[in-house]
Design goal:
The protein contains 13 helices and no strands. The protein is an all-alpha fold. It folds into 2 domains: about 40 residues, no CATH class; about 210 residues, MetI-like fold. Helix 4 packs antiparallel against helix 10 and helix 10 packs antiparallel against helix 13. The chain starts with 20 loop residues before the first helix and ends with a helix.
């Protein structure tokens, strides 16, 4: 006769897993950090909006404060400026062209760096990071000379090429994790079915990486829309200025019309805010996917 002895393990307070002490303070610290970051971004934006609703005397007067009589004269003057809509069209053409050209380079480059594991890949990734660290001002004079020789100064094509050269390393580094997240087995299965490498890339990889492509394209568009340094240097005629350069042109030696400048800044930000509103979920999910995987 066999005897089965059941042993019961008593759980004491010492054997129970304890919560990490840092979690007790994580929520207050995170909340305080969110508040600080919110104020850092919200206060300047609030100042811009309030200044755009003031009259010039309210801005420069000694009694200027949060208490004033709002007026939309600055917005009426900004919208009546024919150059505003020309600059907005220029910004859209440049941002869209830069996005398409950058994606045309970054997508295959990111795919290649995601699938090739060698010392060359490591060197190329390091070079892309170094290119991102170079200040934009270091490229202005060389590009100005090159575009002058090619006849690309004061043209949209010249600025699109310059912005593409500026944003392509960033786009490649952003695209690479999305392609690495796709299992290699899917490509191998497609090749076993007789698909060529180009067909696999077009029919398998691109659809699976569409969130990454959309995320990268949106970020490149936003950055190209607000790019200023190349725009103000490569366009010789103010009539061709995009919105970013048009804002800088409002500052002159004869003074600054602060309400008009702030109203123009608010109008310039509206298309970006609309785009961000519709793509916020895509950006959040896409960047999280690329970071986690």
């Amino acid at each position: 006769m066999s005897t089965v002895t059941a042993t019961r393990t008593l759980t004491t307070d010492s054997s129970r897993p304890r919560r990490a002490p840092r979690k007790l303070f994580a929520s207050p610290v995170a909340g305080a950090l969110r508040i600080v970051l919110f104020l850092m971004y919200a206060v300047p934006l609030l100042w811009i909006v309030l200044t755009s609703l003031k009259s010039p005397s309210d801005v420069i007067g000694s009694q200027s404060s949060l208490l004033f009589r709002p007026t939309i004269d600055a917005y009426v003057a900004a919208l009546s400026n024919a150059g505003l809509f020309t600059a907005m069209q220029q910004s859209f053409v440049i941002a869209a062209g830069t996005t398409l050209l950058t994606l045309a380079i970054a997508i295959p480059a990111g795919y290649g760096l995601a699938r090739v594991n060698s010392a060359v890949t490591t060197i190329l990734l390091g070079a892309l990071i170094v290119f991102q660290m170079l200040p934009q001002t270091a490229n202005v004079i060389p590009l100005f000379q090159i575009f002058g020789q090619w006849g690309l100064l004061d043209t949209n094509l010249g600025l699109i090429i310059g912005d593409t050269a500026l944003l392509t390393p960033f786009a490649i580094l952003l695209m690479r994790p999305f392609f690495r997240a796709v299992p290699v087995a899917l490509e191998e299965a497609a090749m076993l079915d007789g698909a060529s490498s180009i067909r696999v890339f077009r029919s398998v990889m691109l659809p699976l990486a569409r969130n990454g492509i959309a995320t990268t394209g949106t970020l490149v568009f936003l950055l190209a829309w607000g790019e200023f340094l190349y725009a103000v240097n490569f366009f010789l005629s103010p009539v061709n200025y995009p919105l970013s350069a048009l804002l800088a042109a409002q500052v002159s030696a004869f003074g600054i019309n602060w309400p008009g400048l702030m109203a123009l800044a608010v109008i310039t930000s509206v298309p970006i805010l609309i785009l961000f509103f519709f793509t916020y979920r895509l950006l959040r999910e896409g960047l999280t996917l690329g970071a986690v995987k």
